[in-house]
Amino acid sequence: MRNYKMKRNIIRSVILLFLPVLCFSQSLEYNIQKPSKLFIGTPFHILVEITANEADSIFSPQIDTLDIFILKDEIIQSEEIYEDKKTTKLDLTFQPFDTGEFTFPELEFAVKSEDSLVFLKTNEFQLNIESIISDSTQSIKDIAEPLQIDLGFWDYFFPLVAICLLILIIKYLMKLLKKRNISGSEPVIIDERPPYIIALEMLELLKKDKLLEKGDFLIFYFQISYILRFFIELFYKINAVEMTTSEIRQHFQIEDFKQKSKILDFLTFADKIKFARFIPKLKESESALKWLEEYLRSFENKQENLEKTDDHQVEESNA
Questions:
Q1: CATH 2.60.40 is held by the domain 2-130
Q2: What percent of the chain has pLDDT over 90?
Q3: What's the pLDDT score for residue 20?
Q4: pTM (2 decimals)?
Q5: Which of 8, 110, 258, 291 is most solvent-facing, going by the fewest CB within 10 Å?
Q6: Which DSSP string corresponds to 190-240?
């Protein structure tokens, strides 16, 4: 009898342990709608269906897309109720703003019932983003059948003789160049000014073009993002001009994390205008120009402090 009571208590404990799982009624399904090839700035849809009890509430927390995939519009939501079950359909539209192979992160949704809170997640998946869409209208097509031309011996002889003579002349000129004294060649001029002065000079030339007054935002953001990348390349010794924004995020190492975040936000916003044809507001563009100028001028004080430190070290070594 004692063993029977013990077994009954064990069965009750197991049932209580698995009761939340047995009572779980929410489920999540999702589908991805995208073209066979995905290009930068091309939108794609993620359709999510969540089945829950009729009285449950569904929440969508803020989505972190790592600055690569940006939620384009508001989430479109609809509901259907059948036999005390509620199916909520969510349509999310995203746009990629960088090229390469990326992992789309999990999307998390919260289902709130009277006595519980359940989180449902989608799975991660890979996306390969290409740079531009090829224009099929620009392909070269024949407008007429090719003509057949019969060539004779002399048609081949004279071109071959001309090619041989050209090769001999090139070899002769190369020998002459090797014998010349190249010490009199002009030296390469290197701009030894501080990088921030060079960048500020480029910025002043950009202001004179008055691109914002003309409404030419595309060329404007090409120029200011190039100036910032060129300064980073000169000052921090990384190949920023040839890198994408994601590569700069990976290789750009500075102690001031807030400053790094502002620089990456600046470059990401410029990429939206350059590649996704996003049209900014005039005040946003003026603020971007002002921020870049203030950022470059902040290095003037840093340069003065560096020169004072070098002079002090020289004085100590002489003493």
A1: yes
A2: 15
A3: 42
A4: 0.42
A5: 258
A6: ---S-HHHHHHHHHHHHHHHTHHHHT-HHHHHHHHHHHHHHHHHHHH-S-G
